[in-house]
Amino acid sequence: MSSAPSSTASTTGVPAERAARDEQVAVLLVSHDGARWLPTVLEGLAGQHGVDGRIAAFVAVDTGSRDGSADLIGAAPLAPTPHVVETRGGTSYPEAVGLGLDHVREVAPHATWVWLLHDDATPAPDALAALLAQAHARPEAALLGPKLREWPSLRRLLEVGVTISGTGRRELGLERGEYDQGQHDEVREVLAVNTAGLLVRREVLEQLGGLDPQLPVFGNDLDLGWRAAAAGHTTLVVPRAVVFHAEAAHRGVRRTPLTGRHTHYQERRAALWTLLANAPARSLPLTLVRLVLGTLLRMLGFFLVRSPGEALDDLAALVSVYSQPGRLRAARRGRAATRRDDDATRARVRALRAPWWLPYRHGLDTVGDVVSALTDQASDVAQRRRAAAAEADPSSMAALRLQRDASDLDAVEEDDEQRYADTGVVARFATNPVALLLVLVVVAALVLARPAYGAVVGGALAPVPEAAGDWWALLTRGWHPLGSGTDVPAPAYLLPLALLATVVGTTATVSALMVLAVPLSLWGAWRLLRVVGRFVSPLGAPRWLLLAGSLTYALVPLTSGAWGGGRLGLVVLATVLPWLGHAALGFADPEADRRWRAAWRSGLLLALATAVAPPLWFAAVAVAVVVLLAAAGVVRGALRERSVWAPPAVALVATPVLLLPWWLPALLTGAGEALLLDTGRLPGTRVGALDLLAGRVGDQVAPGAPVWLGLVLLVLAALALVPRATRVPVLICWVLAVVVAAVAALLVRVPVRLEALRVEVEPGLGSSVVLLQALLVTAAVLGALGAVRARGSRPARWLVVSLAVVAAVPPLGGLVWATLDGGGVLTSTEDGDVPAYMVQRAETAPERGVLVVRGSLDDGVGYRVLRGDGDTLGEDEVLALAAEDDELTATVRELVSRPTPAVVAALGEAGVQYVVLAAPADGRVAAGLDASGGLTQASADDRGTRAWEVTRELSAASVTGETPWWRVLLWVVQAAALLVVLVLCAPTVRGRRDR
């Protein structure tokens, strides 16, 4: 227990005769588990002098204390005898004060003043006398507060009056850690004073309605003072009255059901509520917007200093306040009833508030602190590096001196810890060239991705639907009203897209995936390469090497042509692959529990990667088999332990289980080709052997970076075999690369025919291209790390220099190419041949389909049937994988060659309302359609596109169907499997067994 603060407080010597003899005081103390402070607090109350006859009653409200606080108060030698009111735990401070006031009316009905005290705030012996003396000298004062000092230090200032800024910051007007030297001992009017030691006229407190119940712990003082000022009352701070406050709730020393573990949330919520409940009506809209923007900026700042908890607390506080508009309106109406609406009062309240420019000054002060700390921080970094060098070579005299300097470094850091608490992270960032380069790269990537801001379409990327519900419908239906109707399952990648789109919308989902592809790939590659480097060397790879390697990989979506060609699946695969590799490294962990956790994490990420790039699963199976066989060859008996071979097997098996609603129906409906094809519009482009080695998947419109740029990386990976120190891990990368290439060579021999498009295509090799690029980058980084470690010899130094020069080519060349000619086919809209009014009618019913015919009688004719708003993302793949409708094909053949009324009637039965002959229209076909009965001309445009309307009866029978029961069962299995995998991905919690 700390010593009694009364021993350090000076006596004012204010005679009781100066106070009005007819005014009495009721002391109201609120306690909750305050037994550690109460003995000193009660001693301070008993020692109050100069107030003989002024104290009419001692009333204590105990809110469910479990440490005997109520008994301590009841047994205290106070005069008059304390009245203890016990209530339930969880009672808020405003409720407790309200209960105390009710009791004061009973035991001391003539008390004019109420003195509020906390159980962790002890008054100096003359505190109450000084407050009453000032109340007598300033009769207009309705609220008077003491000067608060820190307990147990007793000398450090906490508050001498308080106000609030426009951003909700509690403004004290004090320097951090300022000691009390009498510099703030002037009585002055303030907006508010702390409730710890607040002397308030009982009549005013009751007229204002007491404390706001919406502020259960924090912010009561500011809200009450603001309301009192708005009602025309005066609040004074009386520095000669001293109260020592432990601030147990604010400092987290004491947690209650009201504060829990989120003190910051409660404080921020109180600040937001106080501002919105008391702000003038004319400034309320601006305040609402300012607090939202300010919260976002505060969250960003918290994230930058690695305080995500405070950032989330800020967001939760904003949501909590803004989600209660009814209570806010009621609070504002209550304040309006006591407010004085005259210009003088409003001007007075404005003067008591913090000036509008104060938040900006705080920002400038922070910037100034950062700038002033940069030099010292850089000096500290240099000292640490010299100390590390001394440890590496302790034999030299310089090392001995550096060790002596390093011994003093801890003392320097200890002295500067508080000074750098808020600016250390920023200073380290500003003095780190690699960090600055990373920021520049991310900014450049976001600028280069500007074609993907907003709606994006083109190449292999189809337009997105208007709402996420369209994707959910496509996923959950067993029969799709597309084309002639089909039961081909929707692509598996629509599930994560639909989940994201439910939150941010379809357009924002696709745009975000394209825009953030490079930054997220950069982040994932950095993490992966850092861990891989530590497998080789305890110190890991240098940061400049990590930057070069991760940037080279992060540019793969751009340089390969996948981004510019709208290959969303490959772009997402490039983003996910480093995270998958990072999770798979857990298979090498010596602890079995960590290997199993790696299995579930790898299985989840592999399922996501397979959903966007199906052929990847076959490469993953081959890689796993080769790695396990190699492990069995190196370590005999390794595969006998189930915890060694089972985790990789579980990760591989988890993928088809998690993708079961897509995988199994695809095989049963004759659309098994989907397991071998890259996602996106079909057919895709062909990837040759040179493209595979150079990392290119583009076409003539979006070919990607020059091939020679990709071959440089291949050369670097080959040179990585030279350094002995890292030859084994580099060789592993090369073995895996050969396995991936072999799988690609086998897949390309599998014939794939798309019946609906009447074309034969090669299996998708885009996933093999991305995986090969990842392995080559890893090999090159490991080789460079080996060369750096062997830099002692002259040949090795030349090798390091040569590798550094060549290693800069892929990332710098990729950036230059992306900046100058990162061309693609991505746009915000896509031209169509179907008039807009036809699309609008097609959206109303499935039988209002549009038959689009292309080609001529000489070169051949192709067709497709559009329904709804056209073929959107996911629907185009379903149509391409569907079986050809032979009956509709025969009908279209007759329509373009010998159209008859029977043929037109067949169109109506197939659910076709319009026939569109796309430009350039064949004159013979157009003439036949003009002369056919049952067709009327609908429209024509300048490009030569012609359209007719079918006047026969329309039927939706051919495009309607039911969802089989077993499809629903597959979705249930998928949901259960996903839940199990997510739970098993979490860390294992072990109980203590040391007893």
Automatic annotation (TrEMBL):
UniProt xrefs under InterPro entries: Glycosyltransf_2, Nucleotide-diphossugar_trans
UniProt signal peptide: none
The organism's place on the tree of life at top rank: Bacteria
The entry's keywords: Membrane, Transmembrane, Transmembrane helix
SUPFAM superfamilies: Nucleotide-diphospho-sugar transferases
Transmembrane stretches, start-end: 434-453, 493-523, 544-563, 604-632, 644-664, 705-722, 729-748, 768-788, 800-820, 968-989
Gene3D superfamilies linked to this entry: Spore Coat Polysaccharide Biosynthesis Protein SpsA, Chain A
Keyword Oxidoreductase: no
Name this protein carries in UniProt: Glycosyltransferase family 2 protein
